[in-house]
Every structure is written in C-alpha cells, then in structure tokens.
Amino acid sequence: MIKEIILPDLGEGIDGAEVSEVTVSIGDTVNPNDTILVLESDKASMEIPADVSGSISEVFVATGDELKPGHLLMKIELSGDAPKTEINVKEKPPETNPKTIVEEIVPEPILENFGSNDNVFASPGVRRLARELGINLQGIKGSGQKGRITKNDLNGYIKLQMAMSSGAIPAPKQEIDFSQWGDVEVQKLTRIKRITGERLQQAWQSIPHVTQFDEADITDLDAYRKKLKKVGAEKGIKVTFLPFLMKAVSMVLKEMPEFNSSLDFTDQNLVLKNYYHIGIAVDTPNGLTVPVVQDVDKKSIFELSEDLMDLSSRARDKKLKPDEMKGGTFTISSLGGIGGTAFSPIVNPPEVAIMGVSRSAWKQVFDKASGDFETRFIMPFSLSYDHRVIDGAAAATFTSRFAKILSDLSNFKN
Prior knowledge:
Radius of gyration: 25 Å
Strand content: 15-25%
Helix content: 25-40%
Distance between the termini: 53 Å
C-alpha cells in the first residue's frame, strides 16, 4: 500500500515555505515520528514528520523548492502492519487563490517580458488564453507542481498588471547605484525578515490603525514578581513581567470581547472568540516571529512562564511547530527589556488589536490623598487597533482597565 504525504496547512497567515533540507532518500525506512523534510517559512523552521511506518518510494521535492499546502511531497510504501485507515485518498493539490499569487509576486513584478511561450510548462488552456491576451507566460511564476503555470497564476498576473496600471500597486523601484557616493555592502534579507516585512506593509495599508498610549503603576507588582522570581528560580522557572501582562490582557479581553475578535472574509461580520490565545512577538537572529500561548486565562503565572521559556527558546532555534504559530486572538510586543518610552506596533491580522510594552522607569508621581509626591515604578504601554472594529473610547477604556488590573495583586494570586 502506498501513502501519499501531502503538505498540510502550515498555520494562520503562512501561504508557503521553502525546503531547507530533505532528510530522507528513496529506499529509506521511516517511522511515524521521523522527520522527512525541513521547511523554512517567514516565521520559523518546521519539521514535517512521516506520520506512518514504511519505505520511501518516491520523492517529489528538493532543497530550495517553494511549496504551498496541498503539494505532494513523497510517497511511502507502508509496512505490512500499517493500518489501512492511514491511507489517504489521492487529492489533487489545490490551486493557489489568485489573491495569494498577487501578494506573492508584488515584491518582484515583471512589467516587460520577451521570448515565446513554447518552452513554458502550462496546460493547453492556459497557453490558449495567454495567446488570446498577448501575454508572455515566461514572465509568470508557476505555483503548480514542478513550476507548472496554472489558470489562477495567469489570472493573478492579469490582476497584478491591472492594479499596477491603476496605481493601486506602486510600480517597481528604480535601481540606484549607491556605491557612486561611497563604499557599500550588500546584505541579503533573511526569508523571515523579507516576508514579515511584506505582510506588515500589507497590514499597514489595509487596516486603519490608531494607537492609544497609556501608563500603568506596577510598583506593587514589581515587588510581588521578585518574590515569585525567587520561588521560580528554585524550580528552574524564569518569572518575568510578561506572564502578568498576559493574564491581565486576558481579563480585559473577557470584559471587552470586541478586542478578542476578527472580521470575517466579507468584512461585514465580527467573529467573537471565546478562547484567549495570546501571541508573543519574539526577536530572533533571523527576524521577528510570533508563537502563540494558548488558553492564557486558564494558566497560572508559573505555567505561563514555563510556556514562554519553551516557546522563546525554540523560536530562536527555529524549532517551532506550525500549530504553535496560529490561532492567536491578541498579540503583545514587549520591548521593556531593551528600552524606549513608546512605540506604535502594527496590528497582526486577522486580529484587531496589539499591545506594545516599553521599558518601565521610576518616576515621581503626585498622590492626591497625601498631597505629596511618591516614587513609583511606571510602565508605559500602547494599544494599536483596527478602527473599523474599535473606536477611541473603547481603546481608552481598555488601557485604563488593563492598568487597573495590574495594580491589584489579587488578580494574580491564584
């Protein structure tokens, strides 16, 4: 019996990935948990397991290939004791949505193409349509297996040209020789930085951003955290401020569900989520990645601390799994350990809000009750939100409530 290994969904917001390593060859014997392929997406490196026991009979990918969900990776001849229920019905890899193709080729659009379509890998129908429209297929990147140009690829190319001619998409930049003014060095962007940058630009252009700035008095919380830090050290757990911020955010999200929502594909309905999965922006040597901590509202400070230690470590080592980077309902980007007084984070779609945390500092604060100034530990933070869903009054209420929760230690003693 033959098992076809199909590339699964890689996670929310991940359209595809590049093969960085093929770890097996034809004839190799594999077990369910053995890694057969390593992929690198814009967010992390992912290991694809065999899922079954058997022998590799065919390999359809190679290092450097760009893959999308649904791509046929390998065929495995199952061991005799493998259950028949593991056999997958052969599925035709889904053709890529035209919108995805537009987004994929925007960074490197081709305006002028030369040559014929004779040696291009495409179906007769695609060739015929291209001839009728006077389009050179050599300028289109195919998303089908082995680079085959699909009908959706051609449609995506046409939409791109129309968008560029109407001004909806900027024309390609002109090449500038910067070396004419002095010595330069060219450094290639990592895949994570390049694709993350493209998505952030798309988010900034498509979402009407507004940022609310506020401060929280965390003097008492700082003292409490230091006590827990000593206890955690005995257990090998590092306790930072972040778990407290995550817990406080989950409490406000329950009170204000529109912040824990997403617009549906029509942009006409709001999908309110009754789960609280917080994405945490992690700075890695290869760029920014956002692993997701699930069910934050149900976990203790120590449990959240352990989750953060594990996810952060594996994010930097590019060992995150696809499921650990999807399903987020809200994101926190903390620069408190680095510095700065404030910044405006970009909303991480399909979420509608993101919190940015800057470095806390000791400040003189006037106490109305005593009439004196007191030295307090103040944390600046900001909330960027999608103005189609959230208005300014709701955002100000959110940040005020968040600050109040942080000042009440009873919220964290459970």
